[in-house]
Amino acid sequence: VWIVTGDGDALSIGGNHTMHILRRNLDCQILLFNNEIYGLTKGQYSPTSRIGTRSPSTPFGSVDRPVRPCAFAMGSGARFVARAIDVHKNLAEVLKAAHAHKGAAFVEIFQNCIVYNDDVFAPFTAKDQAGKQLWLKAGEPMLFDGGGKGLTPDREALNLKVVDVEDGDWQAADVIVHDPHNMAVAHMLIDMPFGTFPMALGVIYDDPR
I need a labelling partner for 103 at 20 to 30 A (CA). Which of 7, 119, 145, 170 fits? Predict the structure, then answer.
């Protein structure tokens, strides 16, 4: 069973249903298309809209902090959490992984709303910004920016930090290898502030139960 929903439907009116599907681990896939706006109802702000978003329902700018869909899913007990971009070639791979997962799978898909919120994701989806995408693959190092940068554990802050990778030697840079079973690292990847860090994409967490 595939459940396709928008960012507002899954996180406001239908948030209760989404939470219970995830915590009960029903064998289905939830695809949440996030465009950070209510595109079908004339562009009102949605639960994922950023602070300051101007819309018919927030003419002076939204004051609410946006919901983070993947954090919501993890908090609801999801055993599979992933992110993708609607027009990226890796989307099919992410959907196949979600379908193969036995239990509830949650996939956030960044979708551009060309009418009411055009290019809101351009800082990491535009062709010239591909270096700000971190595509995660199990058993492979967390590299981005053409392999010139990576993520390593910050053992003092108990978090992740960005390091430079010279001559492709990611091991010398202590770049972490992606383990989708690691819940603690999954939370860190979801919480990374974009700009200082890349956008984590692909299968972030996959630990069937």
Answer: 7
**C-alpha closest to that of 178 among 148, 147, 202:** 202
Q: Angle 106-97-197 (CA atoms, 0-180°, nearest 5)?
A: 65
pTM over 0.85: yes
Residue 73 backbone dihedrals phi, psi, to 5 degrees: -65, -45
**Coil/strand/helix, residue 12:** helix
The token pair at 22 is: 């995830």
pLDDT in tens, 14-42: 677 889 999 999 999 999 999 999 887 78
Strand partners for 44: 38
Q: What backbone torsions phi and psi does residue 63 show, to the nearest 5 degrees?
A: -105, -5
Integer Cα distance of 143 and 174 in angstroms: 11
